[in-house]
Amino acid sequence: MGVNALFGGGCSHFPGRERPGYGYPSPMRLKEPVTQGLYFRRKARGSKDSIAQGFSPENEATNKPGRLRPVQTFPFCYFCLQNKNCMNNFWKDLPKPAFTLAPMEDVTDTTFRQLLMEISDPEFFHVVFTEFTSTDGMCHPVGRPNVISRLRVSDSERELLRKTGIKLVAQIWGANPEKYYQSVKFICEEFDFDGIDINMGCPVKKIVKQGACSALIGQNQLVTEIIQATKEASCIPVSVKTRTGIKQHITEDWIGHLLEQDLAAITLHCRTQKDQSEAPADWNEITKAVNVRDSSEKDIPLYGNGDVISVEDALVKCDQTGADGVMVGRGIFHNPWFFNHPQIEISTQQKLDLLWRHVDLFTETWGSEKHFAILKRFFKIYTNSFYGAGHLRAQLMETNSAGEVRAVIDAFS
Ligand SMILES: Cc1cc2nc3c(=O)[nH]c(=O)nc-3n(C[C@H](O)[C@H](O)[C@H](O)COP(=O)(O)O)c2cc1C
Description:
By secondary structure, this protein is of the alpha/beta class. It is built from 18 helices and eleven strands.
């Protein structure tokens, strides 16, 4: 039996992806834990390690989810006496302010992340997120292959992550703690991410109706269970991205509750669910959240999100609010070279080269798996502020293949 088996493993003192015996009664586990924690254990038919086996597609049909029940386990690394979530918590090692790229559906796939890494200065670019990925979908035998394509990391992106030191976080969403447990266990076993982020901010109606994402704001009991289930299953740090409230800001109460969960980091999009993305982001709410954090005993990095338009803007916002960094969303559409400081003059040729690089990478990575039409939303970001940009863009919008894009670019140059 290794140290991981004895002490739960996975912290920086005993890094390890596997935590044998974890969640099961063991003579090595303290009867009275230092802090009482809610941990999840699942009993399934005829299976010793029901959690690992229960997730496989073959078992899905016969091995119906067992009932989750809280069990007490030893929640601390014996040596550092920190919460298990201390394990390799890269969030605490990031420079201040740190710059993260927001998770964006149909935008931040492996190709776009790679593209940005190729043109950014790693001094101003620290964390990227996947598109949000459904825990319900991951636990569904038919839907799973499609859903997990959102978690794909190409070899070339992996190589860049290694070279630049940029961290990659998988974002997940759902409303069922057990599905979080199963999904995260699977992610930790099958993928190689630096962190898991729980989406508690998406305001889209069909998702909110399922009780997930921003619908979780203020659902303190369920949120506690979801975070605990995720942390229980996770071999990597767990963070949350959220908003300031549903109809009104409830920043202090909500962030207060999240701080109690000992997350590795929190990103706060300073709009309510009702604001969607239209209302101006209110950075006073970030100041409030930082004050709550500072007056608690928690040393949890807090990142502000909403309408960050440049590195200069980010530096001012962090200075004014005390945030540990910013998350950049649509700012990247206005300037793909966002993560550089000072900004460099970008020529028309560089824009066209980047456009082609994106189309080329996308088609090479996805083939026919993803619709070519997804690329069209990007054309605008590369074709602006030069003579003839509007006409070129209109022509590009008519294309249906990488070859056609190439022909349009060649005719323009
Ligand atoms: C096209 C698009 C897709 C998005 N998809 C996600 C997502 O998958 N997960 C998430 O947490 N937020 C998502 N968001 C929200 C962004 O992460 C970010 O919180 C929001 O755009 C506000 O930041 P901004 O004002 O800098 O754009 C998305 C936003 C856009 C514009």
